[in-house]
Design goal:
Blueprint (H helix, E strand, L loop, with lengths): L2 H7 L19 H9 L5 H14 L5
């Protein structure tokens, strides 16, 4: 492309090609429950999880 063509017509930049969509990952409840209950599923782990949840939501409105 010459400089005159670029000045008169402009320069067109092509974007990236669309990447193929990834398959949806399988979400399991096992990961969530292990986080909520801790590894051994005790009452103390549940209480600790509620405290963490409250702390995380403290600044949300």
């Amino acid at each position: 492309m010459s400089i005159e063509e670029a000045m008169m017509d402009g320069i067109v930049f092509k974007g990236k090609g669309e990447k193929p969509k990834e398959e949806a990952k399988v979400k399991t409840k096992a990961k969530k429950t292990s986080y909520i209950r801790g590894l051994h599923g005790s009452g103390a782990a549940k209480m600790k999880a509620t405290i963490r949840r409250k702390r995380a939501n403290r600044h949300k409105k």
